[in-house]
Recover the amino acids of this structure.
């Protein structure tokens, strides 16, 4: 029988000295005194993944290794383990090593070395200077230290990953930076402040995507917009990247002035602009889809400015439209479909023409529009609260309101022009629903199939005398909730034509004279007269 150590069977060999008192995860090394010493292991065997401990194990093959780096609780299928533990499955149960501070473990899924700092597992190092920006092109990756250089080396179809937040000095002074490659820019939640350039000019028919959080602040040396489109183009985001301008004066985006061109902006998030979010030349069509635009910086600027916008499924906070653009409805008029316009103390619509379809328009302590333009609204809801004197002022002929609801704490419409109103509901909680000041006698406010209700003032009031025809009313219900106020109040020589009316005063229902103040010179305009007030149902 041999007693030489090398001849003993493996199963009969003893563990090394100190093994029985060492901790799981310890390793032995020869110390500075030339002696064996057990210490905390520096590197654990690689893990398949760093996972959420509150979720059941992803796999349970014998030898599978995970690190329980996430979660607020432990799923029962892990057994007796703790958060942050390194665990290995032996075919029956999970065996544990509790990590010590500074221990390392390779994450195969992330392809990264992780370090434990005593409370959390973290990637060993951030991106290096040369990998702040990575261009992924046709299966290859190239690292750059400059965003400016990275984009300039992109070709169509590339993805540019941003891995750092920093100031980007383009070094162009008053020269444009021309973007000419169709690129997706993945911000990864980072913020870029782009400076020392005139603007970024987007080449004709370019397709750009900027996604995945963070922000881009485009600062112009020459008081221009951030992104400028002079031809066709498509610019898409996911409403997570704030694209704005703090230095310049023409907003985050500027659309060109060529009638045959169209620019489409999708999923744009833009706030903190001291001027416009999007400004147009007026001839190039700009289509804005599914975006979130905010402009609370000044009453002189709007979320959009000038003509030929089609805005769909978008929220606009602050002043929605600026001061540029046509006053009358025409082929270039701005159109809003399924949008929400929230004034926040600034006039929603400025003074320029708009078409509103299926929109909600609201404001607090400020009018929605001060007139000077046409408005065509279909299936919309208008509301003002607070100290706003008038919900809307209309000072341009031929506005149209169809199937709309209006509600105001004070007055609703002030006008001296013609309006066509059909199938609408008005409720003024402390004021007039409609006050007309002057008339040419040939441009009446036409109201059909509608209900108008006021508290605290007349429902309809023609305030000036000797103006001729000011209203044409058919199948209309007027409701006054104040005993001393009229449903219809006309001044001498200022008239209304009406038929199939219902006048109602909820406070003095028995007194027909509380419902209308109509001078005798209006009698010629009453049709199908059945009583002294015309074809009226007294309710």
């Amino acid at each position: 029988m041999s007693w030489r150590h090398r001849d003993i069977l493996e199963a009969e060999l003893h563990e090394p000295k100190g093994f029985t008192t060492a901790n799981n995860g310890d390793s032995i090394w020869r110390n500075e005194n030339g002696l064996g010493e057990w210490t905390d292991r520096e590197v654990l065997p690689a893990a398949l993944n760093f996972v959420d401990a509150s979720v059941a194990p992803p796999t349970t093959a014998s030898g599978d290794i995970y690190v329980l780096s996430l979660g607020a609780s432990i799923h029962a299928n892990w057994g007796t383990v703790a958060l942050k533990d390194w665990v290995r499955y032996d075919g029956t149960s999970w065996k544990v090593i509790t990590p010590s501070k500074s221990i390392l473990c390779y994450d195969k899924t992330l392809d990264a070395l992780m370090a434990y700092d005593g409370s959390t597992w973290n990637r060993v190092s951030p991106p290096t200077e040369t990998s702040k920006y990575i261009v992924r092109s046709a299966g290859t990756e190239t690292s750059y230290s400059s965003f400016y250089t990275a984009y300039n080396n992109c070709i169509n179809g590339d993805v540019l990953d941003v891995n750092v937040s920093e100031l980007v000095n383009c070094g162009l002074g008053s020269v444009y930076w021309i973007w000419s490659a169709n690129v997706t820019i993945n911000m990864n939640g980072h913020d870029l402040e782009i400076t020392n350039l005139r603007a970024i000019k987007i080449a004709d028919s370019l397709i750009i995507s900027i996604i995945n959080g963070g922000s881009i602040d485009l600062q112009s040396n020459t008081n221009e917009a951030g992104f400028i489109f002079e031809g066709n183009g498509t610019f898409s985001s996911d409403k997570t990247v704030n694209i704005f301008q703090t230095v310049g004066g023409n907003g985050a985006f500027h659309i060109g002035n060529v009638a045959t061109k169209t620019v489409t902006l999708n999923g744009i998030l833009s706030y903190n602009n001291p001027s416009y979010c999007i400004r147009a030349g007026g001839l190039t069509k700009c289509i804005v889809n599914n975006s979130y635009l905010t402009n609370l910086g000044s009453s002189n600027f709007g979320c959009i400015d000038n003509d030929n916008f089609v805005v769909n499924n978008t929220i606009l906070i602050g002043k929605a439209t600026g001061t540029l653009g046509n006053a009358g409805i025409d082929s270039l008029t701005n159109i809003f479909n399924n949008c929400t316009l929230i004034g926040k103390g600034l006039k929603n619509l400025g003074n320029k023409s708009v078409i509103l379809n299926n929109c909600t328009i609201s404001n607090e302590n400020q009018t929605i529009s001060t007139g000077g333009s046409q408005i065509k609204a279909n299936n919309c809801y208008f509301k003002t609260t607070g100290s706003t004197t008038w919900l809307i002022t209309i000072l341009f002929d031929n506005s149209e309101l169809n199937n709309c609801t209006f509600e105001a704490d004070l007055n609703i419409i002030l006008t001296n022009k013609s309006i066509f109103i059909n199938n609408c509901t008005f409720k003024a909680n402390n004021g007039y629903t409609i006050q007309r000041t002057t008339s040419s006698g040939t441009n009446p406010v036409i109201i059909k199939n509608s209900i108008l209700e006021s508290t605290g003032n007349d429902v309809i009031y023609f305030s000036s005398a000797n103006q001729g025809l000011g209203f044409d009313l058919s199948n209309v219900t007027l409701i006054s909730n104040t005993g001393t106020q009229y449903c219809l109040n006309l001044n001498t020589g200022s008239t209304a034509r009406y038929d199939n009316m219902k006048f109602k005063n909820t406070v003095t229902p028995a007194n027909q004279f509380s419902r209308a103040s109509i001078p005798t010179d209006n009698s010629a305009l009453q049709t199908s007269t059945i009583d002294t007030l015309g074809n009226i149902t007294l309710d």
